[in-house]
Write a structure and sequence with these properties.
Distance between the termini: 46 Å
CATH class of one domain: Alpha Beta
Oligomer: single chain
Strand content: 35-45%
Structural class: alpha+beta
Helix content: 10-25%
Number of strands: 44
CATH superfamily of one domain: Alpha/Beta hydrolase fold, catalytic domain
Shape: globular
Strand order of the largest sheet: 37-38-40-39-41-42-43-44
Amino acid sequence: MTSGVHRPGDTFPRQYARTQRLTLGEPRNFTVSSDGARVVFARSASGGDPVNLLWSLDIGAGTESCLFDPRATEESTGELSAEERRRRERAREGAGGVVAYACDAAATVATTVLGGQLFVIDLIAGGAQPVPVDAGVFDARPSPDGGSIAYTRAGRLYVAHALGDERELVGDDDPNVTWGLAEFIAAEEMGRHRGYWWSPEGHCIAATRVDVSRVPVWHIADPANPGTPAGEHRYPAAGATNAEVSLWIIDVATKRCTRVDLPPHEYLNSVTWSEAGLIAQVQSRDQRAVTILRIEPATGACTTIAADSDDAWVELVPGVPALLADGALVTCADRGVRRILIDGIPATPDNLQVRSIVSVADEVVFCANDVSTPWFQGVYAVDRDGIRVVAAGESVVSASHGGGRTVVRESSLRDPRAAFRVIDGPTIANHAETMLVTPKVRITEVAGCAVSIVSPNDGSTSPLPVLFDPYGGPHAQRVVATQMAFATSQWFADQGFIVVVVDGRGTPGRGSAFERAVHGDLATPVLDDQVAVLEALAGLEPRADLSRVAIRGWSFGGYLAALAVLRRPDKFHCAVAGAPVTDWTLYDTHYTERYLGAPRSDSVNYDRTNLVAQAASLTRPLLLIHGLADDNVVAAHTLQLSSALLAAGRDHEVLPLSGVTHMTPQEVVAENLLLHQLAFIRRSLP
């Protein structure tokens, strides 16, 4: 693994911002060829380089070769399409170059889009050529045999060959209708980032038709540039109308479109088309029921092959439903823990919480953790004959799989950077920089919650103020056995704090009941768990000065930070709330309604979790930070809370970030944001 060298004179905040949270230089987006001989992946040349190149690893020889350097071609410098900018925001993608690509079935050719220009890359000989079609291309994918390329432009679905010869397959003159694109909810909340799928033989494409005409229009303005018109954003807030999504089968040769006869549904969660067949999963509006359908491509007829329901919600698990090579259906379901089911029969044990499915072919490769130690995650494989360990230990392991080979990424509390390797094969170089802090982390448990205590590397025994640094909400885990997870927490610790990170009820990894403890209330159980850890902290860390306690967080963590000083000023003495949700009626349908129900019928759940209504109770210093270009947690959340605080005569501070989205990727913003938070906390604590 190549040593990650940082720049002379760097401070940690500068390094963390410049390296996009120490992610630049890491290999990523792995594709294993069908013969198991090669691994294709993206990686930049160094930990400070934001431009990803496309690489190939010869597994047998253990050698890497660069297939495509985007900077070597003049055609790669165009403007990003609106669809690409939205995709990157949904994926929280801040890098450049080859950030996404797609391969044919054998991984002999790949397609990528740079500045709206389509490129075809030879994965055997290397090199790339631009395809002579108009710019504005998005989500290009070669057919399984590599002979054709499908892509979208301006909401229309096209197909072309490497030499051009573009044909429009389907489109609509209504600007509110798109083909082959994932709608906002699918990309932001359901993990479905695409809207079309090739058939295995390449003769047909299954594509979504999305109609957003009934979705409310919100306007995202740029107050720093009043001459710039506000952008329209179709945002389905809780209780509002969602996009209408239908599924169609398109014959590539004739352009004949056949509508799939999906049953009544609110959400199209997933579509999978393999040699074993075409299936889709749909979900009800209340998310308590899903139906899995086998689709007859010639007619669009559907047959229900499985269904699941839950009194709270049915969890969507990446990678399923899918079909094994023999046609057996692979699903996941909460049965005390989240288990893999093969044709409805549990195939994984009751101590493993399945987190994602990596691959479904002759066997199922998946990521999971033991519910007793959710801060470790391993990779496993299961078939009808049983389960085996692929890679697991006191670490966090994720994987990609294909051609009978598995590529793993492993990180731990022992090493500052992640290691990449092919199981029973060579390693893959990691060029990421080594962080300019040395995490000193202890993981423990309090009242069923996973807790990390991060202390400074000063060797002192003097009392120190406490900084809670949580996320605390569903679908995100902060207490994990990897140094990378605590880079920022350690920097704060080294400034003179005991930093505490708590994964309480609602966070993943502990089993079904633990996650569902927040159903109907995203405030009380979440905050109660932070308080329980705070009250136990004196027995865990003698240096913790509980008379000086701060809390900071972003997104749900920002909501939790503001909630803490509003409800428990006796415990938390100041807060930094970044991009907080303050009124859940302003957040999107799929996320919010899963936990709080419908605003009309379950209004009590929204009332008791609303921060704006509690503004008059603020007695502690509060810093609100929000990107004004945020289209996920819109700036109205912070602005409405600030107005309510002002009306109640409650002092507070607001830091608006002009031109910044939910990610804060800009280097100068990210660096100074950490310094600003530190200064606020220092002057706010007694």
